[in-house]
Amino acid sequence: MKKFMNSVETILQESLDGFAAAHADLVTLGENRAFVRRATLKPGKVALVSGGGSGHEPLHAGFVGHGMLDAACPGQVFTSPTPDQMLAAAAAVDTGAGVLFIVKNYEGDVMNFDMAREMAPGEVASVLTNDDVAVDNSTWSAGRRGVAGTLVVEKMVGAAAEEGRGLVALQALGERINGATRSMGVALTSCTVPAAGGPTFALGPDEIEMGVGIHGEPGRRRRDMAPADVLAAEMMEAIAAELGEDPGEVLLLVNGLGGTPSMELYVMYHAARRLLEARGLRVARSLVGTLVTSLDMAGCSLTVTRLDRELIALWDAPVATVALRWGM
Amino acid sequence: MKKFMNSVETILQESLDGFAAAHADLVTLGENRAFVRRATLKPGKVALVSGGGSGHEPLHAGFVGHGMLDAACPGQVFTSPTPDQMLAAAAAVDTGAGVLFIVKNYEGDVMNFDMAREMAPGEVASVLTNDDVAVDNSTWSAGRRGVAGTLVVEKMVGAAAEEGRGLVALQALGERINGATRSMGVALTSCTVPAAGGPTFALGPDEIEMGVGIHGEPGRRRRDMAPADVLAAEMMEAIAAELGEDPGEVLLLVNGLGGTPSMELYVMYHAARRLLEARGLRVARSLVGTLVTSLDMAGCSLTVTRLDRELIALWDAPVATVALRWGM
Questions:
Q1: pTM of the complete model beyond 0.90
Q2: Do A11-179 and A181-313 share a fold?
Q3: How far apart are the C-alpha atoms of A239 and A237, rounded to whole Å?
Q4: CA distance linking residue B50 with residue B75, whole number of Å
Q5: ω before A58 within 30° of 0 (cis)?
Q6: Which of A6, A22, A225 sits opposite B288 (nearest CB)?
Q7: Distance between CA A161 and CA A154 in Å, rounded?
Q8: pLDDT at A245
């Protein structure tokens, strides 16, 4: 294992210190590195807090800023943050309008965010994301996993919070966006967790994991490598089966899992877009990037969100975070 | 080799088609995919054109847009674009104030951009970037290579062009920025060129290439893997030796070469920043990302630019490209 680090024990803290130093205009690191929060809060706004195991960067700390999250709690690599971190984050960013937790559906995250919600002195609600259609239950999840669609929920709910909507409305909006969003991923290689020192799973030289999770959890099946069009079709079939037959407008997010170059992501975008169009779905908004990752895994995921006017306006609204920035 | 593609012959064109479709708000693909240009030109502005072999994305097409490039010419993977592409790009974006070519110092690029400059009917000047301090001559360069510092030149000269400065002034500015900029890279793994089908060079399980080029060219030496602080110190020593002893303000760019996760880049940023501070240099501006790449290579480069008030203002100026966006 060759990784840029000084030790397994310090990789996360040095990374967080570097992140906070590089982006002091946008974010501040909380005490004991419990959370990353916006440098400037907006009083009276519902505060959005997310978090989860590290190793998925830029999710979530890269999405902290105007128009998106107020705070993100980084756990150890692929390990949930603690309720204490969530409570500290909520306390730091709650300006009186309440706090909305955005939680990916993994047992550790769900349990800890639930505990924090119960312990929090103020008003707290939560939204669970479970956009991954690959499998119905997984290694660390009862029910479907939350993957790259979480970004879409965070962006749109973040915009609505910035507009001044209340906690109950934001929770309902988050659930509606999650319900309109479906994803599936594929791994060409395993990730390597620093503390493990070797690959999480083994793949043959021509083998891939179709439906992989963002921690390297098993997907639907192992299969042979195939042309991009074939892989995109298998993933899009699974996604589209759940989006329904109606024509309409969608957001297409092609997300790199860490080790896949931009050129290949755009080949997959090209394939996925044509598949959507062939189904009568118009790609009205697009995002292509390495945004919700699994450390150094080579692979990608496709995410499709059904759009309406409201969701398009929320997507287009200004955002200023480390990893997503437009309109300001 | 597992890559998301349909064939070696079509990977570039499908990727470009996907890029143009995903970002139609910002860019337009030229005829025969000869170049990517801004969707909207600004009449009377000097046009900035860059380009080079593909495989370094988001450089250069990802830097086309307001406040940066007007057009970028993509060659085949690691192969210079042709003079015809450069002429077509120049013709498409020259609104009468002339064209500035920004050229990385590789023999093919230099020769072809020179030829295009001589053949162009309008006024054309060029700036050569050669920020890589690793080696004085390299596989495809007489003199030092142009690497991630090219991004800094494109950003700052792009801002100055947007302000309305003339061709001669922009050329001089570009040369000044290049002269104030030094970079060095390190590879943990080789890249794999699609047409080659296997790694460009071989590294042992604990071996790295210090001073690697962005096409996998040899650097200063092979060495054993070491802690991030040690690697950053070796690179920063080479860079700082050329920046001079004076205190002052700098831009620190930590650039991923393709396959290196965000967490590790921030560890390197953290190390590099402290090394600069120990030399009396204040890190006034920062950029951390996977921006000037070598396909799927795991590795990173450090780039330092000495700043003054003018360069800080140019760096901070609004930019709206696929890969760099702020202030608008």
A1: yes
A2: no
A3: 5
A4: 11
A5: yes
A6: A22
A7: 10
A8: 85
Q: Do A116 and A100 contact (CB within 8 A), yes or no? A: no
- Identity of the residue numbered B88: A
Nearest to B215 by CA among B84, B116, B108, B87: B108
Q: Kindly report the nearest CA distance between residue B290 and chain A, in angstroms.
A: 9
CA angle (B23 as vertex; B22, B27 as ends), nearest 5: 140
> CA of B302, closest CA in chain A: separation in Å?
13
- Write down the mean pLDDT value for chain B: 97
pLDDT surpasses 90 at B244: no
Number of A:B CB contacts under 8 A? 186
Closest CB to A267 among B14, B189, B293? B14
Question: A256: buried, middle or exposed (CB in 10 Å: 19+, 13-18, 0-12)?
Answer: buried
Give strand ranges (E) for A33-141: 36-38, 47-54, 65-66, 71-77, 99-104, 124-129
Q: Could you say which of 3.40.50.800, 3.40.50.10440, 3.40.50.970, 2.60.40.1470 is the CATH number of the domain covering B11-179?
A: 3.40.50.10440
Residue of B nearest to A320 (CA): B326
Structural domain boundaries of chain B?
11-179, 181-313
pLDDT per residue, tens digit, chain A (328 aa), is: 999 999 999 999 999 999 999 999 999 999 999 999 999 999 999 999 999 999 999 999 999 999 999 999 999 999 999 999 999 999 999 999 999 999 999 999 999 999 999 999 999 999 999 999 999 999 899 999 999 999 999 999 999 999 999 999 999 999 999 999 999 999 999 999 999 999 999 999 999 999 999 999 999 999 999 999 999 999 999 999 999 889 999 999 999 999 999 999 999 999 999 999 999 999 999 999 999 999 999 999 999 999 999 999 999 999 999 999 999 8
CA dihedral A220, A223, A228, A234 (to 10 degrees): -40
Test A261 with B295 for CB contact under 8 angstroms: yes
A6 chain-B contacts, CB cut-off 8 A: 227-229, 267, 271
Residue B23 annotated to the active site: no
Q: Look at strands A36-38 and A27-29 and give their pairing.
A: antiparallel
A220 SS3 class: coil
Distances from the Cα of A261 to the Cα of A257, A296, B141, B298, angstroms: 10, 11, 25, 11
Closest by Cα among B281, B183, B269 to B228: B269
Q: At the fourth CATH level, which superfamily is domain B181-313? A: Dihydroxyacetone kinase; domain 2 (3.30.1180.20)
Give me the pLDDT at residue A292, please. Answer: 98
- Residue in chain B closest to A295 (alpha carbons) equals B261
Please choose, from the candidates B162, B154, B112, the residue with its C-alpha nearest in 3D space to the C-alpha of residue B131.
B154
Tell me the ipTM for this assembly. 0.98
- Cis-peptide into A60, omega within 30 deg: yes
Measured CA to CA, the distance from residue B301 to residue B324 in angstroms comes to: 18
Of A315, A289, A303, A34, nearest in space to A158 by CA = A315
| Chain A closest-CA separation from residue B14 CA (Å) | 5
Report the sign of the C-alpha dihedral through residues B262, B264, B270, B272, in that order. Answer: negative
d(CA A212, CA B328): 37
SS3 for B245?
coil
